[in-house]
Amino acid sequence: MSAVKRGLAFRLSALVLTGAGVVLAAIVVTTYFLAREALLEHAEANARNKAQALVNRIESVLAPIPRVAQGLAYDLEDQGLSEESIFKRQRRFLSDNDSLYGTAVAYEPGGRIAGRTYYAPYTFRTPLGPKATFLGGENYRYHAMDWYQIPRELDRIEWSEPYYDEGGGNSLMSTCSIPFHKVENGRRVVAGVVTADVSLEWLKRLVAGTSVLETGYAYLITKSGTYVTHPSPGVAFHESIFSRAEERGDENLRSIGKDMIRGGSRFVTVTSLHTGKPGFLVYAPLPSTGWSLGVFYPRDELLASVNRLAFITAGLGGGGFVLLALLIVVISRSITRPLTRLTAAAREVAGGRLDAELPTPAARDEVRELAESFGHMQTSLRDYIRDLTQATASRERMESELRIAHDIQMGILPKIFPPFPDRSEIDLYASLTPAREVGGDFYDFFPCGDDQFCFLVGDVSGKGVPAAFYMAVAKTLIKAVAESTSYGAQRQGDIPGAPPSRRCTDPGRILTRANNDLAQDNDSCMFVTIFCAVLDMKTGELRYASAGHNPPVLLRAGGTAQYLPTRQEPVAGAMEGVTYTTDTLTLAPGDGMLLYTDGVTEAMNPAQELYGEPRLLARAERFGETEARERCESIAAEVHAFAAGAEQSDDITLLSLIYCGPEDDAN
Amino acid sequence: MSKGLTLLRPCDALRRRRPCPRRAFLGALLLAWAAIFCASSPAAAGAKRAALVLQWQPQAQFAGFYVAQAKGFYREAGVDLEIIPGGQDVVASRLLAQGRAQFATMFLATGIERRAGSKGPQAVVHLAQLVQRSALMLVTRADSGIKEPRDLDGKTVSLWDNEFRLQPRALFQRLGIHPRILPQSSTLGLFLRGGADAASAMWYNEYHTLLVSGLDAGDLRIFFYRDLDLNFPEDGIYTLEKTLRADPELCRAVVSASLRGWRYAFEHPEEALDIVLGRMREAHVPVSRVHQRFMLARMKDIMLPAEKGDTPLGELKQADYDRVAKALTGLGLLKQAPAFGEFSRGGQFLAGPDAGGVAQ
What we know:
CATH class of the largest domain in chain B: Alpha Beta
CATH architecture of the largest domain in chain A: 4-Layer Sandwich
Low-confidence stretches of chain B: 1-29, 35-44, 352-360
Radius of gyration of chain A: 70 Å
CATH architecture of the largest domain in chain B: 3-Layer(aba) Sandwich
Strand content of chain A: 15-25%
CATH topology of the largest domain in chain B: D-Maltodextrin-Binding Protein, domain 2
Structural class of chain B: alpha/beta
Number of helices of chain A: 16
Number of strands of chain A: 22
Shape of chain B: globular
Number of domains of chain B: 2
Oligomer: heterodimer
Strand content of chain B: 5-15%
Largest sheet of chain B: 5 strands, mixed
Mean pLDDT of chain B: 84
Structural class of chain A: alpha+beta
Helix content of chain A: 40-55%
């Protein structure tokens, strides 16, 4: 019972929960992927914007520097400024630009004063205010230095690689150098270089302090790929993006670095060498210096919001799922609990307690209908059982009466074999197997007069109690008639000259008289077939008459058997006034007769075949020297075997007689 | 030795116009501390004290010396050796002459010049030749029109000063070409920006710096002077005549421990790099392991014999000496080259510790 209950609840829960789970999982996964796609789509734009914003902030400081320096260069070219005005302009230059550390106007060898190799007025910031000095000397050959040589040779604005100026407070610097010109022999040649030393400490702090999610970071590389800032210790100014790539054997990083120093700007997928995390690198050039800014976004953190969303969705879904599961358990319980109670009650009813109380579910649902149906069934069952009990009682009474009737019926048939143990002339045996408790077949035998022996077999039309009654009447009547005729014969025999008394016992007359008696007041229109024979035990003469009965089998002592031909005379009891004819034959010692009713020849097997006369005859021919009892029993056994379990539809009556010859002969 | 810059260099390379008082102060402090430490060290009590000055700041170019020091090879040889890193302000021959250092490393050409410019007990003598094959090269862009050295005629070439100009000058003289020479700074910035068609580079240093500045090997065309019949052996160990006379055992000990250090460095490159990188950090110079690894590998290439017939580590072949001396006189830098026997005095140290005495 518990298994059934769990099964239903389990199946219901499993089905609903599986469906709901699949839908929930699909929602969570789809949400996650859609949100991730959307976020990644925007990530590139956001990253580019962020990098560009940083670049713009840096440029807003760096971009004016060359313009101001260029102004000084133009003034130098156009006006040939005096030393004093150069220093004056340099001081103004410094005071106007907070990010400027120092500025120089460096001339070509002998370019300002003939014979003087180094001439470079320089003004720089000190805690006590701007200080003016001159650069150049044997220990400071600036013409061979990058800040002078490169812009001079390339004749264009150049930003130097960043450097730490220890004299300037060990701060990060870069120098912006702008060549200025003079005309010499009609040709415009470089006369010197105006420089602006820019402190980059703010830039370093800006880039290093740029927070990108949790572990993301920004870095700056120079035109040769050297890191200016990098979150890893020992990288800035020590390594270049290419040396890092070489160290890790990372060709991808090298190609990214090449693109960066070329001024490229891209959004690429990389794995950070710093954190080892996969993510995205967006890089953009700083236009004025040619350096490149890289911003790394860790993928997992970029997707953190998506993951959080997925977690929330999954949490809500999971919570809902659990709630649903509880709900389903409750619902399935509420469905199965009345079912379980009903099952228990039904089991009790099935066990015989028809008055067991059935549960009545509160809800007006299918289970309640089922319970009500069970109630109806229980009531019907109770009524039926009551009726059945009554019917059974009355049937048992009837059966008991029928049993008594059967006993009575059987009681009126002679059952002592051999019937006359002191007479050796005949061997006789008879049997009657009724199809029901009582039947319409009968047999009888009795002596009637000297050496006269009457035997008969009858078969009343119909079956059951009416036939049994009729049979009793017919048998009694025949015996009474036979005996009365026998007496009559004896009385006739008393008259001198009268024919021998034995002739008087005439089967035809017995049947004629019995028929007349039976036919009188026969309202039920019943009838009976009778074969009646009287044997003279002295002579073996057999007189016989048949009222529509099956022809008996005559068995000659030699083993031949034949059906005794009978006249086609009507059945007895149907109508009055019928005269039955007596025929005569003589039995030799050893000859026998077999009388039977149609229950033998019309016995059917399951295939609806009749046992039939030919089989009976064939069986009879194989009797040989057997006794009467054995003959009856063997035929009964054969018929039984033939029927092979098919229901017996008619009474089976057999009477076998063997004439053994007169007593004297026997003696 | 290289005046070239590894990457960025805080003071010497990129220093602007002001002197570096802090560095000088730190250096003095370090020396004072080292002196106190050495004097008070019981392990060094029985050892002879000496100093070796190198041409340049700590880098794998000098790995063997630092390894020998760190592994205690000098101490085992009975020498308490102080290594003085070089730099723009540190001139090895001057420290040698002043007695500040007893040993120095120099290019062979520099050594010959110094020998020619000194005499008597102060005369510079050669003890061991470390770099047998010149690492100096000219580097040009592969997409420039310069297919061979002759194409440099009229082009802009940036060159370092002094000993680094000998081979180029000899080459240009031999080829009869006249490139426009620019002084080369301590970086290759001018070449990288396109301000020079060709530049000087040391194979073990600047060449790799170009590679880690975003140029591929295929982007560059290089000319080794050693392949142009101008193989000037480079780093060697030198001392003064008086030091050699006074204590040949000390010279032998320093040479053999140095060579042992070099051999150990080549056999254990990563350990050697750890030692060198440690020295570089102490000296506050840019540290890139990749770069130093490349440098150490190239040092091995130019120092150890590659094939049969190559000069063994430490030895100086007279043919090499004659080639350099001839170039120096040919360029007019020397009137007469010193005799090889007077110059090269360390040959007997290489045979083993029991080899004969000092050549007179």
